[in-house]
Amino acid sequence: MKNPLDSLWGTVICGLILTLILHNIVSYALGG
Amino acid sequence: MDWVPAISRWIHFLAGVMWIGLLYYFNFVNAAAAKAAAADGTGAGIAKHVLPRALFWFRWSALATWLAGAALLGSNFGAAFLLNKSHLAIGIGAWLGTIMLINVWGLIWPNQKKILGMVPATDEEKNKARRVAFLASRTNTMLSIPLLYFMAAGAHTALYFG
User: Fold this and answer.
1) pTM score > 0.90 for this model?
2) Fewer CB within 10 Å, N- or C-terminus of chain B?
3) Nearest residue, CB atoms, A30 vs list B28, B88, B135
4) CA distance to partner chain B, nearest, from residue A2 (Å)
5) For chain B, which residues make up each domain, given as ranges?
6) CB A13 within 8 A of CB A4
7) Environment class of residue B44 by beta-carbon count within 10 Å: exposed (0-12), middle (13-18) or buried (19+)?
8) pLDDT of B90 strictly over 70
9) What's the rounded Cα separation, in Å, for the pair B101 and B61?
10) Pick from B89, B138, B150: which is nearest to A11 by CB?
11) Beta strands in chain B (DSSP E)
12) Tens of pLDDT along B46-75?
């Protein structure tokens, strides 16, 4: 499988997905 | 006015804009430009005149951003890094920023010194250094997206997690 970080768009999409995951974790932890 | 947090926040923004601005310059502009320049034999000027200056401001603004952020956290530094509920959002941002700072000083800069000939390296070592520096830089670009989100959320928790 190709490393998504080799592509600029792959990097941005990974960042957006990571943001969504972390947002959900924090939201859950804060009882939101 | 409480001078320390006020000035720290201002410096944190100033240095952070320079750090992430240069990170985006490296990833969104220079990577493709260097590839095109290498193909037509005009890359030497970038490597000699642009990159050393850009990397100087990049690595020192990264450190200044982190130090100003630590000063801004002040007595909440422990609560943020221990991810206490009261400082969870900014704590995530602080950890992402710390990982990025370690990437700058521990991976990007030492490998760039080999690539730019500031320290001796064989061609094989330079090729390996290029790959490591590239992936560390791309990792920081990826991490900057949630980093900026959680910096914003840290100051406006109710808006983001209310």
Assistant:
1) yes
2) N
3) B88
4) 13
5) 3-161
6) yes
7) exposed
8) yes
9) 10
10) B138
11) none
12) 999 999 999 999 999 999 999 999 999 999
